[in-house]
Amino acid sequence: MSSLVKVNWDSKLPIYEISHLKLQNEGIKSLLIDVDGTLLSRQSNIIPTNVKNWIKESKKFFSLYLISNNPSNERIRNIAQELDIRYKSNALKPRKKITLNVISEMNEDPKNIAIIGDRIFTDIIVGNRCNIQTILVKRLSRNGLPLKLNLTLMIEKLISIFIK
Q1: What's the rounded mean pLDDT across residues 3-11?
Q2: Contact partners, residue 44, CB within 8 Å, separation at least 6
């Protein structure tokens, strides 16, 4: 049975530990990447070095696109410019209109696209609604390390059990 909250790959890892080889083996050619919590803490403007290195390496294999619910176009634009990646801010995930526009812009078969994010009720749901692969990662703290305890994700996973 399919579900809006089903995660294709619950990595239990921060984004910078996701294997490029595994993504390639899954047929992924393009990545939609959430920003706040996934690439850096919501309370920080500094992209961790290990995230920058992962993005740099990812560009060798995949087409990348940042897609964020953050309404601050300036914040997301600055991050996107630093990483040299196209972006959309204020994406309104889990609504699918903006995400579908981005998918269309990527000019790739949706089966070869994955969304990477730290939230089930935004990133994972929109990925499922748009029929692309979903990858859940650990949220990053201010120091760029994964949170040891992510209460929001714990609550989302608990609620997800009852949403089938």
Answers
A1: 87
A2: 142
User: Phi first, then psi: what are they for 33, rounded to 5°?
Assistant: -125, 125
Q: Which two tokens stand for residue 77?
A: 């634009």
Whether residue 2 is contained in a domain is answered as no
- With respect to residue 127, please indicate whether it lies within any of the assigned structural domains: yes
How do residues 117-160 score in pLDDT, each as one tens digit? Answer: 999 999 999 999 999 999 999 999 999 989 888 888 888 888 88
The CATH number of residue 62's host domain is 3.40.50.1000
